[in-house]
Amino acid sequence: MSKKANAKEKRPARETNQTVLRQAMLRRLPRRLGASGVFVLPPVPSLFEHFTEQLRELFAAFGRVFDEADTLHLQGVVKTQLERAYAVSPYSRVVVRYQTEAPPGTAMHYDVQVELSSVADEYAQWVKTRTPPYFGVNPDAKVLECAHALGPPAQVPVLDVGAGTGRNTLPLARAGFPTDAVELSPALASVLRAEVEKEQLSVRVFEGSALGELGLPSGHYRLLFMAEVIASHIRSVEEIRLLVAGAARALAPDGLFVFNAFLAKDGYRPDPVSRELSQALWSNLFTKADLAAAFQGQPFELVSDESTHDFEQEHQPPQGWPPTGWFVDWARGLDLFDVPSGRAPIDLRWLVYRRL
Ligand SMILES: C[S@@+](CC[C@H](N)C(=O)[O-])C[C@H]1O[C@@H](n2cnc3c(N)ncnc32)[C@H](O)[C@@H]1O
User: Fold this and answer.
1) Which terminal Cβ of the chain has fewer Cβ within 10 Å, N or C?
2) DSSP per residue, 264-294
3) Which domains, from first to last, does the chain contain?
4) Residue 182, ligand 1, Cβ within 6 A
């Protein structure tokens, strides 16, 4: 073999395959490709691996491929912030801000922060941005049924806990029931107070959390109800227990404690993801065993347990159905589970307990 031919063989072959070269150039593209953005997560600590994977894929789409160490670090930061946010409020948000390194760097910079939002903050926003009525026009048929079943209105003092803007409080007061209300959100309480004053009703509005001390009269009410409150905002068996204890103090013997809550249907065992996510989606999930634990040792007996959706649909005036655009899907558990209607493993139940 000639010297010339030998040198030719030793020289590395040039890559000329267009497909291979195109991929090779695309691998260099991140040196000039920039991206920045914000990724907002609900506070569901049990989904930390899922969210980390979503972020990893997002960053990879910009040519920022995370190795195992990068991924583990991201996962740790995301998990910590999800836990911090969840501990404070299910309406908090974990906000991931990301920004590619300036050219020709190819790193991805990110920052994970918690933005807190309380129940009161959420409703203040509703009052600023939404058009009332926020929870429907008509009172709950179940609440009216229970109130009227207890006797002539003047003899049936009622307490609406988590009254909102008074969807139930105002019709009860107009019908002659001595009515008081508890409301946590200052924004909603002031709408309710304005209406009470306008109509010159004698409703007392206690502003604050029903989980705390509000100076309510003891042994006074014959009906105490919480409509869409446990279902939307109550976070644990301990919190329900506090509400049950408060109801036991405020109710007269034989009085009724009425509320609606999302309960797991028989055969469904909620896992941590469903429990945590249910709170972020205002469909707070409990089991019958949770309720039994909350009522353990308290002076109540269960009188009835039925579907809120079915009861209200049957008893509301036709022009009052559905109460809001969101009510039917929410009450059927479809805000939490994207399954065909009727197939969600949870249901919003009306529960009626008698004070012993
Ligand atoms: C979905 S709204 C329902 C309002 C009203 N009960 C109705 O059905 O039209 C839930 C209400 O519960 C109130 N709330 C939530 N947590 C509360 C608490 N710990 N104490 C008192 N009210 C509370 C909220 O501020 C809100 O007004």
Assistant:
1) N
2) EPTT----HHHHHHHHHTT--EE-HHHHHHH
3) 19-115 (no CATH), 119-355 (3.40.50.150)
4) yes
